[in-house]
């Protein structure tokens, strides 16, 4: 929700560093703007989205600039990544300064 888009987050290493340095894990009471991370069984993230409310997230499925951002239900988002098998997990993170 920054005023200016930050294209540095295209780099996975930079995005992970920002997540580790500026966010903390939350278990419940999710809030608008929390980051939703989908991770493989070994803990490697493969997708991120933004929590909106209830069961809705804001996600960009695909890296090409023509693929739009969309509002999805979590079940829809999870369905996009069913090829990762049954052992992946969902985690939620919140900025340290909120």
Write down the Rg.
Answer: 13 Å
Termini separation comes to 12 Å
**Number of DSSP strand runs:** 6
* Overall pLDDT confidence: 86
Percent range for β-strand residues: 35-45%
SSE succession: HEEEEEHE
Low-confidence stretches: none
Question: Residue share in helices?
Answer: 10-25%
Global structural class: alpha+beta
Q: Largest sheet, order of strands side by side?
A: 1-6-2-3-4-5
Shape by Cα distribution = globular
Report the total helices: 2
SSE blueprint and pairings:
Layout: H1 12-22, E1 23-26, E2 35-39, E3 45-53, E4 56-60, E5 69-73, H2 74-80, E6 89-95
Task: Give a structural overview.
The protein has about 100 residues and is of the alpha+beta class. It is about 20% helix and about 35% strand. The chain has a 6-stranded antiparallel β-sheet with strand order 1-6-2-3-4-5. The radius of gyration is 13 Å and the shape is globular. The two termini are about 10 Å apart. The model has no long low-confidence stretch (mean pLDDT about 85).
Question: Keywords for this structure?
Answer:
single chain, 98 residues, alpha+beta, 36% strand, globular
Give a nutshell description of this structure:
It is built from 2 helices and 6 strands. The protein has 98 residues and is an alpha+beta fold. The longest helix has 11 residues, at 12-22.
């Amino acid at each position: 929700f920054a005023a200016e888009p930050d294209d540095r987050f295209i780099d996975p290493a930079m995005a992970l560093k920002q997540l580790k340095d500026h966010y903390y894990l939350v278990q419940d009471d999710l809030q608008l703007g929390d980051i939703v991370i989908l991770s493989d069984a070994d803990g490697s993230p493969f997708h991120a989205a933004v929590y909106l409310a209830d069961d809705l997230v804001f996600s960009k499925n695909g890296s090409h600039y023509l693929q739009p951002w969309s509002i999805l239900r979590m079940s829809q988002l999870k369905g996009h990544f069913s090829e990762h098998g049954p052992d992946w997990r969902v985690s939620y993170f919140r900025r340290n300064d909120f």
